Structure formats: C-alpha cells, structure tokens
Amino acid sequence: MKTRRIVIAVGAALAAVAVVGGVIRAAPWRSADSTVQQLTYTVQRGPLTISVSESGTIKSREQQILKCEVEGQTTIIYLIPEGEFVQPGELLVELDASQLEDRRVDQQIQVQNAEAAYIQARENLEVVKSQATSDISKAELDYKFAEEDVKQYLEGEFPKQLKELESNITLAQEELERATEKLRWSETLNKEKYLSQTELDADRIAKKRAELTHELAVAERDLLQNFTYQRTLDQLNSDVDQARMALERVRLKANADTIQAEAEFKAKELGYQQQQDKLAKIEDQIAKTKIYAPIAGMVIYATSAQGARPWSNDQPLDEGRVVREREELIYLPTADAMTAEIKIYESNLQKVRPGMEARVTIDALPGRVFSGKVATIAPLPDAQSLWMNPDLKIYTTQIHLDGGGEGLRTGMSCRAEIIVEQYKDVVYVPIQSVLRVNGEPMVYVPQGQEIVRRPVELGLDNNRMVRILRGLQAGEEVLMRPPLSSGAAPLEQQTTEDEPGSSPRQPAAPSEPGARPDSGDSPGTAGRGQGEGRPSGQGGTRGGTDSGGGPGGGGGPGRGGRM
Questions:
Q1: Could you tell me which of 541, 558, 549 has the C-alpha nearest to residue 489?
Q2: Which distant-in-sequence residues (6+ apart) come within 8 Å of 320 by Cβ?
Q3: CB–CB of 38/516 below 8 Å?
Q4: Would you list the DSSP string of 509-524?
Q5: DSSP-based three-state secondary structure for 492
Q6: DSSP, res 228
Q7: What is the pTM of this model?
Q8: What's the CA gap between 300 and 418, in Å, rounded?
C-alpha cells in the first residue's frame, strides 16, 4: 500500500512537470540487463523563475493593540461586536470589577488607619524634639551654674570668709591685749588695796574669755584654710563634672529619642504612602477594567486576527470569557497599509533577503494579485512552532504590500510568492534527476544501451527545477529516476509517510542498478530543513508549502519537494 501511494505521487509529480513545459517521455530505452522501461527528460533551455512560496495571513501594517491590563484573571462582561467602526473614546471592552471594588473599600479603611498613625507619629516627633530642647537647655544651665559656683567660691565666698575670720582674730587679739592690760592694772591696784578681790577675779575671767575667743578665731581660720576650703572646692568641681556628664547624657538621650521618633515617623509615613499607593493601584485597576478606543478604526478581535492555533486552549473572544493579564484583546488598524505575514522554513532562509519582490494572492479575492516587498525576516525561529516541534524551525517574515490594500481585511488567508531570481535563458532539469555520488551532483544520460554518469554544476532550484550551470546541453536526455546503487541519495526524496517536521528516512540501496527499494520510497534525499542531498550553497527543500507554476513557479506539493 505504501509503495502504491509513492508510485501514485511520483506519477502525479511527473505529470506536473510535463504540464509546466518540460519534456518527459517513456523512451523505448532499456538497459542491457533489465527489461524495465526508463523515463527520461529532455534537458530544457529557457526562462526559469526561482521563487519561494508560503501561505500566511494578512495583517494591518500599523495598528493599535489593546491588551488586558488587569492583574491576574478577570471575566469579560461587555464586548463590542467585531467589525464595527468606532470613534475615539468609545467603550470597547468592560471587565468584571466586583472583586476590585471590594478590595477598594478594604483598602480605604487601611488608608485611614495609616493616616491616623502617620499624624500621631508626626505630632509625637514634635513633642520629642521640644522635650529634647528643653532637657538640653536645663542641663546646660545646670552645668553653667556649677562652673559659676566654683568661680564664685574661689573669688567671692572663700576670700570673704577668710577675711571675716582674720578680722575676728584681729579683734580677739585686741580684746586679749586689753584684757591682759586691765588685769595687770587690777592686780597692782589689788595689792595697794584699791581694788577688791572680786573685781580682780572678774578681770581675770575677762582675760580668759579674750584668750579663748582669740584661740577660737584662729582655729576657725585654720579650719577654713586647711579643710573647709579644699572640701568645698572639691565638691564644687565635682558638681561641675556631674553637670557636664549630665549634659552629655541629656544630649545623647535627646538625640536617641529624636532619632527614634523620626524613624517611627518615617515608618508611618512610608506605611501611609504605601497604603495610598495600593489604593491608587486598585483604583487604576478598576479604571482599566473599561477599555476605550484610543483612535478611530474598525474593531478586530485578537483571536480572529491570530487565527486558530491547535496547540492553544484560548477560546474565541466573547462575553463571559476569562482573560489574563497582558492578553491581546482588540486590534485597531491605524492605516490602510497592509502586510502579509508568512513563515519561511530555515532551508529557504539563504534564498530570501529583505527587499525582494513578492506576489501575494488572497484566497477570498480570487483573480487579484498584490505586489509587495520583503520587509523583515525574524532573527530567531518562531517560538510556538519550535515548542511544538523542535526539529521544525520557521522564521516569521513580513511582506509590505504596495498600495492601499483595497478590499483586504485583517485575518485573511493569503499565499505569497517571493521572487528570488528570474533567469531569461538557462539550462534546467527536474530536481529529482540529480543524484549525489560521494558528495558530487550527478545526472545519468542514456547512450545506446548504457547509462553514462555525468557530473554537473548546479545553480538555484525552485523545488521543481534546478538550474544546470555546467555539464548538460539543451536537448540531451537524462534519466528521471537515477539508479540508487550509484550514490548515497538523489537530490530530492519523497517522504510521504513521514509526519511534518520529522526527520527524513534514507531509502535502502537496492542490489541492482535501477531497482526500487523495498520500502517503496521514491529515490531522492529529503533536503528539508538542512538541505541533505542538495548542492552546497543552495539550501534544503521544504515540501508542501511552495506553490506550483512550472519552471517559473515555486515548490510543488509533497513534503519532500517531489512532484
């Protein structure tokens, strides 16, 4: 069954080549040891177009993309119908804001509590600063008074006390001298019997009192000079030291209290600001639940523009659908200029360059052909396709269409043919006629009853025909199916049994020249992705995407590029 499908595919491919102007015939040529009739192709010379054809989607070149900016997931409760033309400020999408409304009420309470704490911390800071200033002033005054007490004692009190005691000693000394002199006269008078004994005793007592008074005055002076003065001075100096240390303690404590109060104030201020920011964020999120048109334009749902993606679980945009943050919702084209977005397989990257001419056809607009140029080629493979199949690398390519794109709408399916080269007069043969032998491209030319292997130099190919730079002349015959036993693999291999993106299978070499492999695969290399079996510098071949159109067309049907 597998062999039958391959034979049918080969037959259809050969028929397609015949349609595009080549000459394929079942020549009555047979090899000497085989009765199998061989198909040959007459080498052609004429115009040849090298192109790459891929399918894609029409998109607006410039457009406003409106996304869901609400955090987390939310539900659409209103959605404007697709295709309507809207004016700036018109409501497009409304998202469910009930949970955000509840959060806003709770957050308003948090803001009020934070504001009260902030005001309290601010007033407390002022109180602490005022108290610190007062305590420092009092401590400085105590220290100043302590220093003045020392100076007052040294320059005032002590000299005064010493002078008073010195005067007391002087007076006591005079009183003593007077009492002594009086007693001497009293004793003389008593001897002469002019003074009584009682009066003499009184004078003696008066002298004794004067002596004691003098001694007491001297003792008080000595006490002041030797003891009281030093003790009082030490006490006053100690008071100065204590006042100075108390001042330092007050200053440190005041500074610590102020810093603590400032830290508490800043913390409450930041907390208050944070709660305000949270409230502002919630209000901003509530505002973002309503998406308005920033410009005038026709509404296009993002799900419609992106097309169906089998690997995605995203449902079409509709009311009641849950959307996530940053999900694209609405496209609003801002200009009439359109672009065609296609995917280029890595095997064709070396052929395609920005600036190349392209022809674009629209499935919905049969008969119309739009011209354009390749604008950009993505530097990296498409991530989604790479995730689906790591072996399949395709690059997003933008083709800017000329003119205003009348009749085109975003999301239309299209097919773009990129013109790589256009030759007016070149020699070419079918791509499956070329076989690599030890890395060298070869063709097989029947001469009489023999098959002659001839090396050729290849140019570019369009997945159907390959240009021959050297080695063949127009009018010569070449075998359409070179014998696999002569080389590693033909230039192009049919791989109809493979899944898209899978690695091509090499056919087993038959034991006799011209025999088919048991697996039923038609001879040829895959060439897809890495360009196995293709000439160096020409790139691999990707089947199933390049359009037909004869020698001037793109690639033909079939994954391996076989016709």
A1: 541
A2: 75, 76, 77
A3: no
A4: PPSSTTPPPTT-PPSS
A5: coil
A6: I
A7: 0.53
A8: 28
The radius of gyration of the chain's CA atoms, rounded to the nearest angstrom, is 57
522 has a pLDDT exceeding 90: no
Q: pLDDT digits over 379-391, tens only?
A: 999 888 888 888 8
With bands split at pLDDT 50, 70 and 90, how would you rate the model's confidence at 186?
confident
Give the 3-state secondary structure of 420-472: EEEEEEEEEEEHHHCEEECCEEEEEEEECCEEEEEECEEEEECCCEEEEEECC
Tokens 């097919």 -> residue: 415
Residues 391 and 529: beta-carbon distance below 8 Å = yes
d(CA 479, CA 513) in angstroms, rounded, equals 13
DSSP character string of 241-302: HHHHHHHHHHHHHHHHHHHHHHHHHHHHHHHHHHHHHHHHHHHHHHHTTEEE-SS-EE-EEH
The Cα–Cα gap between 534 and 460 comes to 10
- Round to the nearest angstrom and report the end-to-end CA distance of the chain: 19
Q: Please calculate the CA angle 78-302-311 and round it to the nearest 5 degrees.
A: 115
Say how many residues make up the chain.
Answer: 563
**188 vs 200, 203, 312, CA distance in Å?**
10, 12, 147
CA proximity to 516, closest of 480, 488, 484: 484
Nearest to 546 by CA among 535, 526, 561: 561
Instruction: Tell the residue number behind the tokens 């609400």, with chain if given.
Output: 70
Helix (H) or strand (E) holding 371: strand 365-377
Q: 551: burial class by Cβ within 10 Å (0-12, 13-18, 19+)?
A: buried
For residue 225, the 8-state DSSP code is I
Q: Which helix (H) or strand (E) holds 50?
A: strand 44-60
Is the Cα torsion angle 386, 389, 394, 396 positive or negative in sign? negative
